[in-house]
Amino acid sequence: MPSFSKNVLLWLLVFSQFAGTSLWFVGNAIIDSLPSTSPDSYANLTSVVQFGFIGGTFLFSLFGIADRISPALVFFFSSIIAALANLLIIWLGNDLFVVLILRFITGFFLAGIYPVGMKIAADYFPERLGKALGFLVGALVLGTAFPHLVRSQTHSVGWKGIIATASVLAVVGGCVIFFAFPKTKNANPPQSFHPLTAMKTFRSGPFRSAAFGYFGHMWELYALWAVLPALFSAYNQQNAVHFSVYFLSFAVIAAGGIGCVAGGLLSQKWGSKKVAFYSLLLSGCCSLLAPLFFQSTALLFLSLMLIWGITVTADSPQFSALIARFAKTENKGTALTLVTCIGFSITIASIQLIKHLFQHHQAQSLWLLSAGPLLGLMALKRPD
Asked: pTM for the full model?
C-alpha cells in the first residue's frame, strides 16, 4: 500500500467525501425530468433519502459498525452499493415507487460515507479536528451542490447523464479511500455490544450542548437546501426574471463550502464553539431577513441568499468537532453516527413542513427555519 503525508491524506479524504455525497441531491436536480415525478415531488424525494440515511445511521450506530470494522472498508462498500442503487434509476425511473426505494437505499448507504468519513478524520487528524472537519463538510456541501451544477450546464447529456456522473464519482471516491486508508491508525478490535452505550454519552454536559446545538442547525439546513429550486422558481415568476434556477441552487449550496473552510480555519484561533455560535446566529438572522428581501431587487435578494448559504453550513463541522471531542474515545464513531441519525430525523419534519407552508405562503415560510438557530443558540448558551 502506498503511504501518503497527512496533508495528502486530508485532500484524498476531502475528494472522496465530495464524490460520495454527490449522490445525495441527484433526485432534486433531475426531478422535472424523471418520467415518474413532478416538480412538487422534491420534498418526498429528499425525505426518502433522509429516511434511508436515518435507517442506516441507526443500524450503524446500534451495532457500532464504525468502531468494530475498518472505516475504510465501510466507506468503500457503502460507496459501491449507493452508486449502484443510484445508477439503477436510469433503467427503472418510470416507476415512482421503485425510484423512492432506490433513493432510500442510496440514503441508507450514505450512512457509511458521511459519518464514517468524519470518523476517519477524527482518527487521523485529532490535533486539528476543527480544521479537518471544516474541509470535510465543505466537501459534503460541494458534493450535495454538484448535481445542480451539472443540471444547469448540461443540455445534451440529460438526466441519465447526471445520474451516471454521480455514480461514477462515488465509486472512484470509495476506491480512493480503500487504497489510501487501508485501516485507521486507531482501529480497535471488535467490542462487546451494549445498546445503551452511545446514549450514555448524552450524560456529558459539553457533549449534550454540542449535540443539541447541532440539532437546531439541522432543522434549518436541509429544509433550506430542499426548497431552493422552488424558491428561485417563485422568485422568477413574481419578478418576471429568468434566472437559472439550478445554477442559483448550486451557488447557494456550494457557498456553504466557503463557510466550512473559513470556519475550520477560524476554529484554530477562536475555537469550535465560538465559530459554531456566531455561524448559527448569522444564519438565523438570514432566515428572518430572507422573506423581506424576497420583495427587493435581485442583487439584494441573491446577495442575502449567498450569505445564508455560507453561514448555514459553517457551524456544521464545528459541531461535529465538538461532538467528536467530547465523546468517549472507544465509542467515538458510534456517538458521531447516533447524533447524525437524530439530526437527520429532525430534517424530515422541517422539509415536509416547509413544503406545505411554501405552497401557500412562499417566501414567508422561511421564517419557520429560524426556530432551529434559536434553539441551537439556547443549547450553546453563549460562546466561550
From this structure: 0.86
